[in-house]
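sry for the spam today, last one i promise. struct tokens for design, 151 residues
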């Protein structure tokens, strides 16, 4: 098992590394050339800044049983299709049972924004310590579940 993080602007990289280190699970952080990342624990892969370049690289190297951390529903859907596990930075698990609805909602929201001419959305609310703790607990649970399935 390995953990892959779509690390462009990902607020939970530190938590992922800390929890992974406790379980001796290797981590790979992927980012594009517009972001500078370094890590004492993880392998860092920098890809070109093309549209979705990080996403395609991540999906190309993850395997069944790996864990993918991404806020991108499309990346999560492709990871699930490969038999990997996927988790959002909020701690929400992407599953075969919820991904289709999430993708449809994303599509409908995009369509609504285009029709209304509103291209500027309010960003997400400020991340809190509770958000980080919720992610950590959910991520830890996913790791244990994945490790149990490997046995």
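last one done:
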């Amino acid at each position: 098992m390995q953990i892959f993080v779509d690390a462009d602007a990902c607020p939970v990289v530190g938590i992922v590394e800390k929890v992974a280190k406790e379980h001796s699970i290797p981590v790979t952080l992927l980012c594009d050339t517009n972001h500078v990342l370094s890590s004492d624990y993880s392998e860092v892969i920098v890809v070109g800044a093309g549209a979705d370049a990080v996403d395609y690289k991540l999906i190309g190297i993850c395997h069944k049983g790996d864990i993918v951390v991404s806020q991108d529903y499309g990346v999560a859907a492709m990871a699930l299709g490969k038999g990997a596990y996927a988790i959002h930075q909020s701690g929400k698990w992407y599953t075969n049972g919820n991904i289709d609805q999430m993708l449809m909602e994303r599509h409908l929201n995009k369509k609504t924004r285009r029709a209304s001419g509103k291209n500027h959305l309010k960003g997400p609310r400020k991340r809190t310590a509770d958000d980080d703790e919720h992610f950590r607990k959910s991520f830890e649970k996913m790791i244990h579940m994945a490790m149990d399935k490997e046995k």
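The chain has a mean pLDDT of 90. ok im logging off now
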